[in-house]
Design a protein that fits this description.
Layout (H helix, E strand, L loop, with lengths): L5 E6 L5 H10 L3 E6 L2 E6 L1 H10 L5 E10 L3 H9 L12 E9 L6 H20 L4 E2 L6 E8 L2 E7 L21 H10 L7 E4 L6 H11 L20 H12 L9 E5 L2 H13 L6 E5 L12 E5 L11 H15 L3 E7 L14 E7 L2 E10 L12
Parallel strand pairs: 5-6, 5-7, 9-10, 9-12, 10-11, 12-13
Antiparallel strand pairs: 1-3, 1-4, 2-3, 4-8, 7-8, 13-15, 14-15
Helix pairs in contact: 2-7, 3-4, 5-6
Length: 386
């Protein structure tokens, strides 16, 4: 593996590719190229450690190590059984395989995963008379198998557990938002830690914690115990330690306020537990408050939230969204507010025209991330007609 010029593929959610590309550039990525749900770049081993530790909108970080074409399962197996696997996997290590398949020839990801596993095990058995073990739960080495028609790409997964698993989520509500999606939403909304932030329906607190991490420039994985690259044979512990120290020395003080409201006492309790796990009790305030009875208390203010919607939590949609619009108009003048929703009919009841609409996915749900600008006086926001 050429550790000076690694070809790196970084996976993300649909709609967050540009945000991720900006993050990569800021951290020093070379040849940054935006793809569908991914960004490709180049960097050295230290850069690979740094992006795993720091990127907020990355789901996993892959290093392609072997590419070939296969037109049937025999070719697939033969190519894999001739690859020098000991470069990347020790016979005493455990391994697992993730697969993504888009092919008429290879239709079932489970089948090709088993074939690849057989090829690896047979290779070691022939060469060393010993075989590495499969471990699906917590493998030391993780391979990613990607098949697009006939093109097969084998990558090393440098992250291990998906990077949305930040390590601070101890409790979750009925429909928590993914940490990577939450951070992407905040960055799309322009949150940079200047001013104040409100999540008026905060649930278990993910948006609040991600907002605080951005405001303080805390590395996204500051609470993570382990990355897959730490099990690689070229792992440089001293280099990783220096990178962590450098990143932590960049952490800054935040002087604004980050506030969360919710009407559900159980949700607030979950939020407090997560905030404590993230060591943010001094930075984030949560309180029992019905948003519809609230008034603007923080100036300037950015509001971002994930209101409940029917697929996830049962509410009376029309009335609920109408109340959101009424609260915006009467109690939050001169405020920028963003919300995410999959109920594109119900959001019309807000009665304000969104100034921006961004298509995102919350799990499998197609949503829109909507921006509303509330003005006082002459610049009244246009009502939606009809």
């Amino acid at each position: 593996m050429d550790t000076e010029n690694l070809q790196i593929q970084i996976k993300t959610f649909f709609g967050l590719e540009q945000i991720l590309a900006e993050e990569i550039k800021k951290l020093g990525g070379r040849k940054v190229e935006v793809k569908n749900r991914a960004v490709n770049c180049e960097g050295d081993l230290g850069f690979l450690y740094k992006i795993n530790y720091s990127l907020r909108t990355a789901l996993k970080i892959l290093i392609p190590v072997f590419e070939f074409k296969a037109f049937n399962q025999h070719q697939f197996y033969n190519k894999l059984s001739q690859f020098a696997w000991e470069q990347f996997l020790d016979v005493d290590q455990t391994f697992a395989i993730d697969a993504t398949v888009n092919s008429e020839t290879f239709k079932h990801s489970q089948f090709v995963t088993l074939k690849m596993k057989d090829a690896i095990v047979d290779y070691f058995q022939d060469k060393f008379k010993k075989r590495p073990n499969i471990e699906t739960k917590n493998p030391e080495i993780k391979f990613h198998l990607h098949i697009d028609r006939e093109l097969v790409t084998i990558s090393m997964d440098s992250s291990g557990d998906p990077l949305f698993k930040r390590g601070y989520r101890k409790e979750q509500g009925q429909a928590p938002i993914n940490e990577v999606l939450a951070s992407g939403m905040l960055q799309l909304a322009g949150w940079d830690g200047k001013g104040n932030f409100l999540d008026p329906m905060c649930g278990s607190g993910t948006l609040l914690i991600e907002a605080a991490m951005i405001a303080m420039d805390l590395p996204a994985q500051i609470f993570r115990r382990r990355f897959a690259f730490q099990n690689w044979n070229n792992y440089d512990a001293e280099l990783f330690s220096k990178i962590k120290e450098f990143r932590i020395n960049r952490v800054k003080e935040f002087n604004g306020k980050i506030v969360g409201y919710d009407i559900d006492a159980r949700m607030l309790n979950a939020a407090r537990i997560n905030i404590e796990a993230a060591e943010m009790e001094d930075v984030i305030e949560v309180k029992k408050q019905n948003f519809f009875d609230s008034k603007k208390e923080l100036f300037p203010l950015l509001m971002v939230f994930n209101p409940p919607y029917d697929e996830r939590i049962s509410i009376n949609d029309d009335d609920f969204y109408k109340k959101i619009g009424d609260t915006f108009k009467t109690h939050y003048p001169n405020t920028l507010a963003w919300l995410i929703s999959s109920d594109l009919e119900a959001v019309k009841k807000i009665g304000l025209r969104p100034s921006r609409k961004i298509k995102l996915f919350n799990g499998k749900l197609e949503t829109r991330f909507l921006q509303y600008e509330m003005y006082e006086g002459t610049k009244k926001v246009h009502k939606i007609e009809g």
